[in-house]
Amino acid sequence: MRNVIIFGTNRGIGLALVKEYLSKGDKVWALCRSASEELKNTEAKIIEGVEVTDFKKIQKLAQELKDLRFDVFIHNAGIWTDEEIMGASEKDFQDMSRAFEVNSIAPLKTVSAFLPLLAKGAKIGLMSSQMGSIDDNSSGGRYAYRMSKAALNAAGKSLAIDLPEFVVATLHPGYVRTDMTKGNGFIETGESAAGLYQVLENLDSIGAGKLWNYRGEIIPY
Ligand SMILES: NC(=O)c1ccc[n+]([C@@H]2O[C@H](COP(=O)([O-])OP(=O)(O)OC[C@H]3O[C@@H](n4cnc5c(N)ncnc54)[C@H](OP(=O)(O)O)[C@@H]3O)[C@@H](O)[C@H]2O)c1
C-alpha cells in the first residue's frame, strides 16, 4: 500500500483523484481548506485548514507529518480567472497577482515543504492546464490563468531537472465538468482522474519535466 498526498481535494478533480487512488488500495492524505460531505464520506485521511498559499501553515503540516513517506504527491489546487485586458481595473490586476500566488507559487511552496517527506522515486504531479501552453494558444484572452499555468509549467521543468531522485511532471486534466468550468466540459471528473492516475503510473525519468494530458499525450509548451 502506497502513501499518496493530494492538495486541493474538496471538490472537482482533486476529489476524484482521492477516490481514484483509494480505489487502487492506496492510502490517501486529502488536504483541503474545508472538507465537503463527499470527501468526508471517503476513507481518506482528511486534513482541513490547508490554504496552499500559507507557507508557514504548509511547513507546520510537513513537520507534523514528518515520520511519513509519500510515494505520490499531487498539487491539484488552482483557481480560474478571466479578465478583459482592454479597460482592466486595479481589481483585475490584483486578481491576476492572486492567480500567480495560487497557480504558480503555491505548488512550489508545497513541493518545497514536503521534499523531506517524499520517498525515493516518488511521483510529483502538478496540476497545470493546456491553457498554460503558449504553443497551443489559438484563442487569446484569459491572461492571468494562461500566464500563471505557463509559469507553473516552467517550474515543473526546473523541478524535474533539480530533483532527479523524483519524477516530476505537469498535468492537464482535460476539459472537465467542475465548478471551475461552471459544469461545462468534455469529460467527467472520474474519467480525468483515471487518466491522470495512469499517466503518473507510467511516468518515468524520460517523461519528467513535460506537460502531460490525461490521455497520456505530451502537450508542447
Ligand atoms: N476543470 C477543467 O476543465 C480544468 C482544465 C485544466 C486545468 N484544470 C486545473 O485542475 C485543477 C482542479 O480544477 P477543478 O476543475 O477541479 O476546479 P474546482 O472545482 O474549482 O476545484 C478547485 C480546488 O482547488 C482548491 N483551491 C483553490 N484555491 C485554493 C487555495 N488557495 N488553497 C487551498 N485549496 C484551494 C479548491 O478548494 P476550495 O473548495 O476550498 O475552494 C478546490 O478543491 C486546477 O488546478 C485547475 O486549474 C482544470
- Total of DSSP H or I helical runs spanning 4+ residues: 6
Which second-level CATH architecture applies?
A: 3-Layer(aba) Sandwich
- How far apart are the termini? 34 Å
Q: How many domains make up the 3D coordinates?
A: 1
- Per DSSP E runs of 2 or more residues, the count of β-strands stands at 8
The 3D shape can be described as globular
Proportion of strand residues: 15-25%
Main sheet summary: 8 strands, mixed
Helix/strand-derived class?
alpha/beta
Q: Which strand order do you get reading across the main beta sheet?
A: 3-2-1-4-5-6-7-8
Instruction: Look at the structure and name the CATH superfamily.
Output: NAD(P)-binding Rossmann-like Domain
Contiguous runs where pLDDT drops below 50 for at least 5 residues: none
The ordered string of helix (H) and strand (E) elements is EHEHEHEHEHEHEE
Rg of Cα set? 16 Å
CATH fold topology: Rossmann fold
List each distinct ligand once.
NADP nicotinamide-adenine-dinucleotide phosphate
Q: Would you state the CATH class?
A: Alpha Beta
How helical, in percent, are the residues?
A: 25-40%
- What would the average pLDDT be, to the nearest integer? 96
Please describe the structure with a list of short key phrases separated by commas or semicolons.
221 residues, alpha/beta, Rossmann fold, eight-stranded mixed beta sheet, 8 strands, binds NADP nicotinamide-adenine-dinucleotide phosphate
What does this structure look like?
The chain has 221 residues and is an alpha/beta fold. It has one domain: Rossmann fold (3-Layer(aba) Sandwich), CATH 3.40.50. 38% of the residues lie in helices and 18% in strands. The protein has helices at 12-23, 37-40, 55-64, 90-114, 143-162, 189-202, and strands at residues 3-7, 27-31, 45-47, 70-75, 118-127, 167-172, 211-213, 218-219. An eight-stranded mixed β-sheet has the order 3-2-1-4-5-6-7-8, with helices on both faces. The longest helix has 25 residues, at 90-114. The termini are far apart. The structure holds NADP nicotinamide-adenine-dinucleotide phosphate. NADP nicotinamide-adenine-dinucleotide phosphate binds at residues 8, 10-14, 32-34, 50-53, 76-79, 102, 127, 129, 172-173, 175-176, 178-181, 185.
